[in-house]
Design brief:
Helices cover 78% and strands 0% of the residues. With 348 residues, it is an all-alpha fold. It is flat and about 100 Å long. About 2% of the residues have low confidence.
Length: 348
């Protein structure tokens, strides 16, 4: 792609593959349970960066020589620009700044520090594995597997430190490669266009080419940031599971957020229906979470009381007695029902 010219239909196919691949990587970063589940990401990051730069060179060649880079580039540029060239350039600049300054610059220090902490903690983790094996908590096979995981984790964070430099370089190269395409003088000289027509044509194609290259690059930068900043929990849930679990455990935060949104709703000029609806939704979610927490707590007390009663009753039970098991639906479990069940257990 960097040397040979490609036809525009093939360019459209390659651009679609680039978009699809970046979305796949982004979704994988959300749904993996541990960063080690995507240990091939640093190598994949290098491959996608080279592929995207080669694709940008091919589209730039078509823009400069044929003032045509395929339907995707033209449609995307015309849709985003919307008849206003300044809007398209500003949107392209905003996306580039967000990717370079916010995401890439923010993830780079994390990628540099993570390998140091991982390497510093490696001897302690190795000693812990050896201690568990000597205490016969784990066998030699499990110890070997855990040592391999520790080594693999160190290699992953070390590779991510270098891979983030590819993300930073990709953001810079995308801007440098796109800028020459806006030059309308080539259209005036080669295609007998007027200055205004050449500027509009090349600007729309350049903005479309830049955005169609920056959006996959932005998604992959976010993917790299998610993997670097990911802290796996004890249950090894994915990112969505961890967020839901941690939010559900703190219903008071939803109530305070709903109260603040209600304050926004009464401010003159603010859309009260939007803020009020969000506040009611958050209040309902927090009430539901508190109710479920009380029900689960009551079920735990009932089960513990039932276990104690079973142990005590088993000692007093005569031979041949059949134990009674009553299953109650969760909808019937309230605080009063919990007290009634406990009293019934004592009476029985």
């Amino acid at each position: 792609m960097m040397i040979l010219p490609l036809p525009t239909p093939l360019i459209d196919v390659l651009i679609a593959i680039n978009l699809g691949l970046s979305i796949i990587l982004f979704m994988m970063a959300i749904y993996i349970r541990d960063p080690l589940d995507f240990s091939a990401f640093p190598s994949m990051l290098l491959i996608t960066t080279l592929y995207r730069l080669a694709l940008t060179i091919s589209t730039s060649r078509l823009i400069l020589l044929q003032h045509d880079a395929g339907e995707i580039v033209y449609t995307f540029g015309n849709f985003v620009v919307g008849g206003n060239l300044g809007v398209g350039i500003i949107i392209f600049a905003i996306i580039t700044i967000v990717q370079f300054i916010v995401i890439t610059k923010g993830s780079e220090p994390v990628a540099e520090v993570s390998p140091r902490f991982s390497f510093d903690g490696m001897p302690g983790r190795q000693m812990s594995i050896d201690g568990d094996m000597r205490a016969r908590i784990i066998d030699a096979t499990e110890a070997k597997r855990q040592r391999a995981l520790v080594q693999k984790e160190n290699q992953l964070y070390g590779a991510m430190d270098d891979a983030m430099k590819f993300v930073k370089g990709d953001a810079i190269a995308s801007v440098i490669v796109i800028l020459p395409n806006i030059c309308g003088g080539i259209g005036v000289l080669l295609h007998n266009m007027s200055a205004t027509e050449a500027l509009n044509t090349y600007a729309i194609l350049s903005v479309g080419d830049g955005l169609i290259a920056q959006i996959p690059s932005l998604l992959i930068s976010i993917t790299a940031g998610l993997i670097v900043t990911r802290i796996p929990g004890e249950k090894k849930n994915n990112l969505a599971g961890n967020l839901v679990q941690q939010i559900i455990s703190q219903p008071m935060s939803l109530q305070l957020t709903a109260a603040i949104l209600l304050v926004f709703a009464i401010i003159p000029g603010f859309p009260w229906f939007v803020f009020g609806s969000l506040a009611l939704m958050l209040f309902g979610c927090s009430y539901w979470m508190k109710r479920n927490a009380k029900v689960k707590k009551g079920l735990g007390q009932v089960y513990s009381s039932a276990d104690n009663g079973t142990e005590q009753g088993s000692r007093e039970m005569t031979p041949g007695t059949i134990p009674l098991l009553v299953i109650i639906g969760q909808q019937l479990m309230t605080e009063t029902m919990t007290d009634k069940i406990q009293n019934l257990l004592w009476q029985l």
